[in-house]
Design a protein that fits this description.
The complex is a heterotrimer. By secondary structure, chain A is an alpha/beta fold. Chain A has a domain of 179 residues: Rossmann fold (3-Layer(aba) Sandwich). In chain A, helix 6 runs parallel beside helix 7. Chain A starts with a strand and ends in a 5-residue tail after the last helix. Chain B has eleven helices and no strands. In chain B, 73% of the residues lie in helices and 0% in strands. By secondary structure, chain B is mostly helical. By secondary structure, chain C is mainly alpha-helical. The two termini of chain C are 31 Å apart. Classes of the chains: A alpha/beta, B mainly alpha, C mainly alpha. Chains B and C meet through helix 1, helix 4, helix 5, helix 8 and helix 9 of B and helix 1, helix 2, helix 3, helix 4 and helix 5 of C.
Chain lengths: 258, 290, 281
């Protein structure tokens, strides 16, 4: 189910502006990798290049190589649509489809692949909601609109919608930044459970969160305003937070800037 | 290969829809191109000095020559009068709605009626003025009656666009002015109106362009004439759209040629108004995208 | 508004009293005869039929155009293309009428015969004779005239779809069309529906273009290719010049009916919008 991602020499642009430059890293399967760094350093941009969501923005483009095991995501003839199917994404703000019920939200991605029997859909919906620790809270109101849930529940609904299509990798772009502490805790527990099955990459502003949930951490920074963001260093999370090898990393995690 | 490729069915469907959407746009543009091409091509035949400076007096339906001077003059007077009546009332109503009415019951009632009025058919507006002016007050068909009918159509459009523009003026500006001790009416005159001015002008020009092309209300209130009548307050006048309608309904080629030339003149006037309005709007906000 | 209704009613009553037939069901329109006989039946039918046909033709194209401008065309030229469609609305209706009667009527002869020959089993396309100056041609002109307003409103609602919902669909591995089906269309449906209602109201009130094209007959026929067709508005424009006192009153009465129909349609459109903004608040 889970795969390794290998990035080499990746640049991303918004029009003429270069947002991130020359990033190379390896993301291990069945683990949680956290991206940290100050605002505007390009960590979300980089995350979006991993499932080709970056190019959805008009004028945005990517150069470099991203390998999912042995497949080049930016290789010729690779359809971004199928890449996104293999690599799912959870966004900063919960975004369930407002016109759909809870059930339809989870089934939305499934139904893209043609007709599936009702019983099979029921099964996957339940499995996914259980997987997102949401089943017990919503099982009696599957036909109510998803927008009626609390923020934390909506975010877990989005995670359920994402894992329903059985991706190899889960990308999470600051999934807790719009949530209260209790909901955040619920999501963090969920991430720890999900890593048995998926390769997880999470962007976070919150260093405690990175320390709590991730196995490896990557620190991004930009040399100056207007310069592209770069990967400063990447290491085991424990090593990174106790003994960073770069001065900039130490400054950032001890709160001296950012 | 771990990245499953997209099924052919889904890809084909996506492509089909893309083609349909492009096709829809092409289908929408074809009539526009066809209308403009034909109007220019056929209109040029009679778009000459005579056409712009002569009337149809003593010109038989089968004769060549003749012009639309009387109609152009009539249109300018009718639209001008209609604007004189509806623009001040429209803008004052909009000011009331935004600055004084707020969410009160009266303001909401006015808003509702204005909304519904924008949808009334132009022929009904014409009938109304006919019933009120010609039949009830027993006055003559005249350019002024036409102007009244046009202003019934114009007013709601002016109110709507002016209201939108006034609403765009940030409250901070008003409060800044109040904080300086400026009374409300002066704030409106000196701060709010100048800020919204270009937007309001754009809206008014678009409204003017729209009523310039209206035919049905004129038909019922201005009636027809072939001679020049420079006084909009007495007797029948002519209007350019009316002229086109009248000539187009005749079976002779000479009349049809005049109709095309009239259509060309009308389109030129309307497009010019539109263009100026858009340019003003574009000027004001070069940064605003689509 | 109330004034409009009052004056129209006041001027219509004497004519209605003079009428020798039932205003609501009579098909003939001969108010200038003695005794006067007239009824709204055929006119109302023609109005509704032509507008419904126009709407059926304009809707798919208008939604396509709106999607093209909001989601398919390159960003840079989308604004300019939208302006081109708006220009369609700026052409005065009498010009469309002229274009319709001189260009489209002869042009439609061929396609109409084709439809009649191969799809004649379908009631709409049946009948004999087949002419260019038909209900179908008038409906096409109406469709062109209401297309810009439907397209403009639909485009606005499509552009209001939250970006994050579109991204959610794309991130699930939806193609562009699937994204539109999943996120854009459900969100925009009420807006598009009210746009359709406004377009319908406009088609029913349109006068001059159809007055030039309609063959102005009285009767109810479903064949849209034959020399039939009339509408309330067109009848007012055409009949007015020759109308006597009763005739004018009769026309005013028919205008009142048109007024009421369009009022109902427009209010329905507003209500759809209002209900939606109430629900999302």
């Amino acid at each position: 189910m889970a795969k390794q991602i290998q990035v080499s020499g990746l640049d991303a642009y918004y029009g003429a502006h270069k947002a991130i430059a020359d990033i190379s890293m390896t993301i291990e399967p069945r683990s949680v990798t956290a991206f940290i760094g100050p605002s505007g350093c390009g960590k979300s941009t980089f995350l979006r290049t991993l499932n080709r969501m970056h190019e959805v923005i008009p004028g945005a483009r990517v150069e470099g190589k991203v390998m999912l095991d042995s497949d080049d995501l930016y290789g010729p003839g690779v359809d971004p649509v199928s890449v996104r199917r293999t690599i799912g994404m959870v966004f900063q703000r919960p975004n369930p489809f407002p016109t759909m019920s809870i059930y339809e939200n989870v089934a939305a991605g499934l139904r893209l692949n043609g007709r599936i029997s009702k019983s099979k859909t029921d099964e996957v919906v339940e499995q996914s909601l259980r997987g997102a620790n949401l089943w017990n809270e919503v099982k009696d109101r599957l036909n109510k609109p998803g927008a009626g849930l609390s923020g934390g529940q909506q975010q877990r609904l989005c995670i359920a919608r994402c894992i329903a299509v059985k991706p190899q990798v889960l990308l999470m772009d600051e999934p807790c930044s719009a949530l209260d502490p209790i909901s955040t805790l619920a999501i963090e527990d969920l991430i720890t459970e999900l890593k048995d099955e998926f390769t997880i990459v999470i962007v976070t502003h919150n260093m405690q969160q990175a320390a709590r949930v991730s196995d490896r951490t990557a620190f991004f920074n930009l040399a100056a305003q207007g310069q592209p963001g770069r990967l400063v260093e990447m290491d085991e999370t424990s090593a990174m937070f106790t003994n960073p090898s770069e001065k900039a990393t130490e400054d950032y995690i001890t709160g001296r800037f950012g | 290969m771990s990245i499953q490729t997209l099924s052919t069915g889904r890809r084909a469907k996506d492509l089909t829809v893309r083609c349909l959407v492009y096709l829809a746009f092409a289908v929408a543009v074809i009539p526009l191109v066809s209308v403009i091409y034909l109007v220019i091509k056929n209109g040029m035949a009679r778009f000459d000095f005579d056409f712009l400076y002569r009337s149809m007096k003593n010109i038989g339906p089968r004769d060549a020559g003749g012009g639309a001077y009387h109609a152009i003059l009539g249109t300018l007077q009718q639209v001008g009068l209609a604007s004189l009546m509806s623009v001040p009332i429209g803008i004052l109503t909009a000011i009331y709605l935004v600055e004084y009415g707020g969410k009160g019951r009266l303001a909401n009632a006015i808003r509702f009626f204005v909304d519904v009025m924008t949808g009334i058919p132009s022929v009904v507006a014409g009938l109304f003025i006919l019933a009120f002016w010609v039949l009830f007050l027993d006055l003559n068909y005249s350019g002024f009656a036409g102007a009244l009918a046009l202003s019934v159509l114009m007013m709601p459009t002016v109110v709507r666009s002016a209201e939108e523009m006034l609403k765009l003026v940030p409250d901070d500006l008003r409060e800044a002015s109040y904080a300086l001790g400026v009374p409300k009416w002066r704030t409106i005159v000196k701060v709010v109106l100048p800020t919204a001015l270009t937007g309001i002008v754009t809206g008014v020009m678009l409204a003017v362009a729209r009523v310039t092309g209206e035919t049905a209300p004129l038909l019922l209130t201005v009636f027809f004439t072939d001679s020049i009548n420079a006084n909009p307050f007495t007797n029948a006048q002519m209007g350019l759209p009316l002229f086109v309608f009248d000539q187009a309904g005749r079976p002779n080629d000479t009349a049809i040629d005049r109709a095309w030339a009239g259509a060309l003149t009308l389109i030129l006037i309307v497009m010019l108004l539109n263009l100026v309005a858009r340019l003003i709007a574009y000027w004001r906000s070069p940064a605003r995208g689509r | 508004m109330a004034a409009i209704a009052v004056f129209l009613i006041a001027e219509a009553i004497p004519a209605l009293q003079a009428n020798n037939s039932s205003f609501l069901t009579e098909l003939l329109w001969t108010p200038n005869n003695t005794p006067p006989v007239f009824g709204i039946g055929a006119l109302a039918f023609g109005t509704i039929m032509s507008s419904a046909l126009a709407l059926a033709m304009a809707m798919p194209v208008a939604v396509g155009v709106a999607l093209f401008i909001s989601h398919y065309a390159p960003r840079k030229i989308a604004g300019a293309l939208g302006y081109v469609v708006d220009l369609l609305a700026a052409v005065p209706s009498v010009v469309y009428g002229l274009w319709g009667v001189i260009f489209l009527v002869p042009f439609m002869q061929g396609p109409s015969e084709f439809l009649n020959e191969y799809l004649g089993w379908f009631p709409l396309f049946s009948g004999d004779p087949v002419v260019g100056r038909s209900m179908l041609t008038a409906a096409i002109v109406l469709a062109i005239m209401i297309l810009p307003i439907i397209a403009a409103i639909s485009r606005e609602v499509f552009l209001q779809v939250p970006r994050m919902n579109e991204e959610a669909a794309l991130a699930l591995g939806a193609t562009r069309w699937e994204m539109i089906k999943m996120a854009v269309l459900p969100f925009g449906r009420p807006g598009v529906m009210s746009a359709a209602m406004l377009g319908l109201g406009r088609a029913m009130g349109e006068t001059i273009a159809v007055a030039l094209i309609f063959p102005a007959t009285f009767g109810i026929t479903f064949g849209i290719l034959g020399p039939n067709g009339n509408s309330i508005a067109a009848n007012i424009a055409l009949g007015f010049a020759e109308a006597g006192e009763v005739g004018r009153g009769a026309l005013i009465a028919s205008g009142l009916v048109l007024f009421i129909i369009t009022l109902v349609v427009n209010m329905a459109a507003r209500m759809i919008i209002a209900r939606r903004s109430g629900a999302s608040a």
